Each structure stands twice: as structure tokens, then as C-alpha cells.
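DM from R.C. (forwarded with permission)

"hey, sorry to bug you on a friday — could you get me a structure for this? deadline for the figure draft is monday and I only need the backbone to look sensible"
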Amino acid sequence: MDKTWEQIANDVDQRSRRAFLLTGVVLTTGIGAAALLAGMAPARADSPRKTKATEIGQAAKPGAGPSGSGPAAGPAAAAAAAAAALTVQVTSPRQVTMARTLAASGSIAARDELLVAADAQGVRLVQVAVEAGAAVRRGQLLALGDDAQLQAQLAQQQAQIRDKRAELAQAEANLDRAERIKDSGVYSVEAVQTRRTAVESAAAKLDLAQAQKRELEVRIAHTRVLAPADGVIVARSATVGAVMQPGMELFRLIRGGEIEWCAELPDHALAAVRPGSTARVRIDEGRSVEGRVRLVAPTVNARTRNGVVHVSLPAGTPLRAGGHAQGELHIGQVEVWTLPEAALLSRDGQSFVYVIGEQGTARAVRVTTGARQGGLVEVRGLPSDARVVATGAGFVKEGERVRVAGPDISPDLSPDISPDGAPALPPGRRGAQRPQGAQGIEGVRA
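My reply, with the result:
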């Protein structure tokens, strides 16, 4: 049924009134809820303090009621405990003796490399007795050439020597007869002189034959290639069937197997190195070998301005000639102040530590670091009695109040060992520890 304009206006008016009333109810309910929460918050905040204060008062004075002296000191202690939500261990700088070193790098080379070359000419190799890497003794056979032809020539020469000796003996006998009867007039003076000359000629021919024999013996000896010294064969170019020529390289040998580290240093650092000082050369991660400085080069490279320090390495080292190695040259010892590596943090290229001040507040102090040795780091810029956060430094924030747990950690302890000798917490749990019930960790820094 159609409504009149008056009925439509009445319906709209009633709907507007209901909407207005509903909006008022919603606003009133929200305001009341907010007031209720605001009134409950102080009570909730005071409740733990009162409970904690009551517990502290009862622990300090058994039987004391709420009006005793215990509850008066309880809120301050509870507030301090609540503020110091991070538990750390501290240490102090310790003075130790550290070795001063110079970092260097250089090649590994043979101290004395010998070239074994051929002396024979036109002799074919028939045997090669050693390979590269073999340890040899002085005089040991390395290669052998074909000496059959030379041996035949030597036999001929020995026959000639016997012939010349016979000629000499005949000439000496003729001269002896002539000398005995020269006064009888049978032999003239000229005949006697001729026989004396024949003796001298036969002796010279014998000497020549013997010299030729020695030459053949030397040529035969040259067909045998021998090691000139004790050492290690590092290269072999001799092959069976090759025809040897004088000066032809056959082997390379490191005398005594001795190798050395040729460390390069800037010219201004060479003066600090002395022959006889120790050096440590790194082999790989976690391994190194100790050597001794044999020689400091008297000149420097005009192009690089670097000088070479020759460091002798012990026998049996796994390093090989021709390789490259890094290491350190020890130039002395000095007394320095140190901290464990775990106590130092780095940010924006600067090193700093957290120092515990009055009322247990942590304060970041920038330090200068130096040498590192055995888990310790040389530090400068701290007083000797500073209390430095040793474990958990990465979780501490500037100005945060922390709680110190246990005795101070000795700086010479490994970061993996706790002060009482027990194994430390595994990675991820080591360092700062929050009390039970603490919700999360704030201010975590890498």
C-alpha cells in the first residue's frame, strides 16, 4: 500500500533516532573500557614489586611483617634486578710477553741446486737409473752410456804400451853393451851416442802410449753419469737412446735436499732482521714450520724496492721448491697488555670493548689493537684495572646495566674454556645469559 509523504517522513525520523542512540552506546562502552584498563595498569605494575619486596623482607628478617625494614629496601633491589637483565663475565687487561713479528711472503727455492750435465761426446745413453724425486748419494750412478767402442780402443792402447815397453827394454840393452866395450874401440863414439838416443826415444813413446790410455779411461768414465753430491733429484731430462754432447743437461739436483724460504720485505724493514733469528712459515690452515734466517740480502730490487731474506727450512718439510708461502719473521719480544679475542668487537673498522662502570653500567670504549697470539690480542687505550666484558659482549648495548656472574676470566684462557675449567657453552649459547622468564634478547649485535 502506498505511503503518504507524512508517513515516509515519520519512518526516516525514527530510523535516525535509533542510529543516534546506537552510536552513543558504542562510544560510552569504549570510554568505560579505556578507563577500566587505565585504572588496572598501576595495580598490575605495583603487584610484582610488592610481592618481590615482601619476599626480600621475609628473607632478610624472618617473621617481619609488611611494616618492617625489609619491605623498605625491597623495591630498589627488585628494580636493580629487573634492570640488569643481561648476565656477563668480565676480565681485565693482562701484561704478557709477545713476540714482535714481521709478516712476509715469498717463494720456496733450493738453497743450492746443482746441474748434472754430460761430459761425453757422441755416446748414446743406454740406461737411466733414477727418476725425479729420488734421493741419491754422492757417486751414485744416475745414467750410463754405451762405452763398447771406447773399451776396444783401450784394449788397443794397452797392447801398444806393451810394445813400447819392449822397444825400450831392447834399446836399453843395446846401450848397455856399447857402454861396456866402448874403450876397446869396437864401437865408435857416434854409435854409442846413437844407442843412447834410441833409449830416450823408446821411453818417450812409452810415456805417450800411457797418456793415451789415461785419456781413454777418462772418456770411458764420462759414459757413467754420477751424482756430484748427496741430494734429491728434482728434474730429469735424460732419456735412453739420446746421444750425449758436452754440456747437455741430464739432471737437476738439490744438494742435501735443503730448501729455503725467500721472504720479501720492504727495504726499510730489512734492518730489523738479523741472521740466526727464527721465522715461522705457514704450510696450510693450522700448520706451520719453523725456520732460521740464514742470510739477509745485501741489496734490494731497484724496481720493487724489496729485499730478500733467506730462511733455511728443516729437512722433511712438506713445502716444495717453486711454491709460494706466507709467514712471519720474529724480530724480538715486548711486554704488552692483552685481552681475549672474544672481548673485542668491531664496527665501522674500529675496535672497541664494553667496560663495566659504576652500578654495573656497560660503556663502549674504543681501543687500538696490535699483535695476536694464542687467542690473545694486544690492546692499547685501557687502564690496567678496567673490567671488560669477556663473554657476551655482542649482546650488550651502550648504557645497559648488566649483571656480572662468577669470578673474572683470566685473559689467557681459551674462549672455549670456562673459568672453572669446564667446557663452555656451545656456539649460539655462549656468552650472555638472561634470567629465566626473560622475554627475548634486546640489542643483539653481530
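R.C.: lifesaver. Confidence is low (pLDDT under 50) at residues 37-73, 412-446.
me: no worries. The radius of gyration is 50 Å.
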